[in-house]
Amino acid sequence: HDRTMQDIVYKLVPGLQEAEMKKQREFYHKLGMEVPGDIKGETCSTKQHLDSHRNGETKPDENSNKETSEEKQEEDNDYHRSDEQVSICLECNSSKLRGLKRKWIRCSAQATVLHLKKFIAKKLNLSSFNELDILCNEEILGKDHTLKFVVVTRWRFKKAPLLLHYRPKMDLL
Predict the structure, then answer these.
(1) pLDDT-based confidence at residue 71 (cuts at 50, 70, 90)
(2) 2, 151, 27: which is closest to 89 by C-alpha?
(3) Could you say which of 20, 57, 85, 165 would form a disulfide bridge with 52 (CB–CB 3.0 to 4.6 Å)?
(4) CA-CA distances (angstroms) from residue 35 to 24, 25, 27, 131?
(5) Which residues touch 141 (CB under 8 Å, ≥6 apart)?
(6) C-alpha distances in Å from residue 59, one per residue of 49, 75, 78, 148
(7) Nearest CA-CA partner of 83 in 60, 106, 105
């Protein structure tokens, strides 16, 4: 699943995204199941509106109805659920820190290593997230690396979940 490539294809082929979403909804409706990825029964026009906002388009869609405050709040509360997801296992690599109660997490592929540092620091009640190093394959990860970048460059052909280790920061000098 390559989100960027899919977005490019949707932009190049007019009407493809709408047709695929319609077919998907019909399929799940025939089975009597809820459509995966729907947020409280969102409609196609709302999904298209969200995608156009996400892609930086500000032109109003003539097919969409005026949004109520409830729909606007729903749009604001997406919390990157529609992003590509990454499954992660966070293991402690030091006897100085304790392990997490729940070491398995799933989050957006757009989250950064800095987000993980802040998450771990909060869960372990550390005074600062700067006290942590996060490693993949024994290699310290940069704070601005996205999890997608880590998977593509460091985890490559290994199966999910992405195994990351954390430890107290080590000063080399």
Answers:
(1) low
(2) 151
(3) 57
(4) 8, 6, 9, 42
(5) 113, 134, 135, 150, 154, 164
(6) 10, 17, 21, 30
(7) 106
**113-144 burial, b for 16+ CB within 10 Å, e for fewer?**
bbbbbbbbbeebebeebeebbbbbeeeebebe
Do residues 89 and 55 lie in contact, with contact meaning Cβ atoms separated by under 8 Å? no
Which residue did the predictor score with more confidence, 103 or 52? Answer: 103
For 128-146, write each residue's pLDDT tens digit.
Answer: 888 899 999 999 999 999 9
Q: Specify the amino acid at residue 133.
A: D
What is d(CA 135, CA 46) in angstroms, rounded to the nearest whole number? 39
- Residue 17: count of CB within 10 angstroms of its CB: 18
pTM of the model: 0.54
Q: Which residue would you say has higher pLDDT here, 39 or 147?
A: 147
Residue of 67, 65, 105 lying closest to 85 (CA atoms): 105
C-alpha 17/C-alpha 61 separation (Å) is 15
pLDDT of residue 38: 62
Cβ neighbours around 11 below 10 Å, total: 11
Per-residue tokens: 110: 């757009």
Q: Which domains does the chain have, with CATH numbers?
A: 85-168 (3.10.20.90)
